[in-house]
């Protein structure tokens, strides 16, 4: 990327915000453009310098992180959102993803995993801490309704790719996993978007949750 990735932080703990700012400051390819203790003035705070990525805490006083995601999705749809929390409650995970979050990483994840997640999300991936991914997949497996595969007319290959998108794989990672070209992956994903009537990875994952497709 020619320009640094612009990142905004929402977290009600100052020491956490400071730690994230320090982490970002050590990278030449990243820049912190703001840090905030809640989402009460999110639209006003961000409209002057729209970030590429938001690191969003879930539990904050006032307007919390899930409501913050809804605001970001409405007013800044091109901004990628990575949720951060110390919790692993299923409801919070799924509500955040349904609201439009693109990834979900626990706060106790090492810095290199957070950096990796930021780079992954701007390249089309959906980063998730492994423990989060296992919970999401477990939820899908419990609620799976294979009839929905036929309902949306998804092919076996499209189902394979949708499952990998749910796991947080990027387009390149899917290509490597399935031994196919990236362009082939892109074409399949376009078909998935058309069949699910969505326009992004996060919408596809949200639809998979809501419709129990995978």
Automatic annotation (TrEMBL):
Name used for this protein in its record: Response regulator transcription factor
Residue span(s) of domain Response regulatory: 6-122
Pfam families the UniProt entry points to: GerE, Response_reg
Cited Gene3D superfamilies: 3.40.50.2300
Entry keyword annotation includes Cytoplasm: no
KW Cell wall biogenesis/degradation (keyword) present: no
Superkingdom in the source lineage: Bacteria
Organism: Panacibacter microcysteis
Organism placement in taxonomy: Bacteria, Pseudomonadati, Bacteroidota, Chitinophagia, Chitinophagales
PANTHER family found in the cross-reference section: TWO-COMPONENT RESPONSE REGULATOR (PTHR43214:SF43)
Keyword annotations of the record: DNA-binding, Phosphoprotein
Gene Ontology terms, MF aspect: DNA binding
SUPFAM superfamilies: C-terminal effector domain of the bipartite response regulators, CheY-like
């Amino acid at each position: 990327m020619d320009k640094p990735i612009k990142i905004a932080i929402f977290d009600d703990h100052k020491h956490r915000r400071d730690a994230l700012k320090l982490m970002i400051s050590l990278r030449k390819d990243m820049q912190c453009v703001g840090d905030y203790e809640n989402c009460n003035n999110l639209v006003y705070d961000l409209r002057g310098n729209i970030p590429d990525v938001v690191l969003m805490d879930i539990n904050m006083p006032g307007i919390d992180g899930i409501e913050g995601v809804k605001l970001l999705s409405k007013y800044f749809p091109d901004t990628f959102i990575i949720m951060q929390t110390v919790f692993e409650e299923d409801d919070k995970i799924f509500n955040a993803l349904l609201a439009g979050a693109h990834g979900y990483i626990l706060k106790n994840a090492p810095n290199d995993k957070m950096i990796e997640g930021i780079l992954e999300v701007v390249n089309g991936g959906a980063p998730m801490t492994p423990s989060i991914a296992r919970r999401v997949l477990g939820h899908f497996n419990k609620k799976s309704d294979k009839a929905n595969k036929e309902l949306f007319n998804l092919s076996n290959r499209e189902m394979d790719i949708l499952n990998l998108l749910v796991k947080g794989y990027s387009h390149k990672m899917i290509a490597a996993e399935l031994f196919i070209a990236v362009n082939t992956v892109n074409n399949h994903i376009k078909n998935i978007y058309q069949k699910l009537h969505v326009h992004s990875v996060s919408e596809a994952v949200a639809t998979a949750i809501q419709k129990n497709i995978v």
